[in-house]
Amino acid sequence: MGNRGGALHNSDREIVRGYKSRRWITCVLEFRGRHRTIMSEGRYTELFFLDEAVSLAAGHRPCAECRRERYVAFKTAWQRLYKRADPPFADEMDLELHRARIDKPRQKVTYQAALSSLPDGCLIQVEGCAYLVWADALLLGTPQGYAKKNGQPRDVTVTVLTPQPIVGCIREGYRPEIHQTGLA
Residue 91: enclosing H or E segment and its boundaries? Predict the structure, then answer.
């Protein structure tokens, strides 16, 4: 589950905006016995993802509270990626991630890259469908999980859905958690 910094819905539970702030995070479904009513008025809008790889492709990062261990691992990979002496602050990462996920007309940023250059855990788009790059295969993303394994074609350029800084963190050792259908 994740959120984008606030309420994206109105009092009729209709989505009225794509995000509220730069803080796009991915949380666990259960944490310290907390319970919420989905789309409560005036509260943040809950977003649900198949797995962490999909949330990363959407531009979210791990939550520093409920996913502390994953957050620290992400910060460590970010620190290595940018060759920093000190770990980054959340605000620094969120600012950079926001530039890499949404452009001026508020459209998702994608880019082209050689498929062979992408690490496991990235999502790409091929002929209008999203695929997970995983273990020398492309796994078709569906609402129920991953399906239809295809071998990775060689020497092709693809549209990358996962923002560049997150791809860099994956290259630097951050391994996204994926849905069990991707492991079969």
Answer: helix 90-101
Judging by beta carbons within 10 Å of its beta carbon (0-12, 13-18, 19+), is residue 164 exposed, middle or buried? Answer: middle
HSE-up of residue 87 (Cα within 13 Å, Cβ side):
9
Beta strands across the sheet bearing 129-134: 111-114, 157-160, 123-126, 129-134, 137-142, 145-151
How far apart CA 125 and CA 132 sit, in angstroms, is: 9
**Mean pLDDT for each 10-residue chunk of the chain (184 residues)?**
89 90 91 80 89 97 95 98 96 96 90 96 95 93 89 88 98 96 83
> What's the pTM value of the predicted model, to 2 decimals?
0.93
Half-sphere exposure of 11 (CA within 13 A, CB side): 0
CA nearest 173: which of 97, 88, 75?
75
59's CB contacts (< 8 A; 6+ apart) are 24, 97, 98, 100, 101, 102, 108, 163, 166
Map tokens 């944490």 to a residue: 31
For 52, 74, 132, the CA distances from 184, given in Å and listed in that order, are: 17, 26, 14
What's the one-letter identity of residue 153? P
Q: How many CB atoms lie within 10 A of CB 126?
A: 15
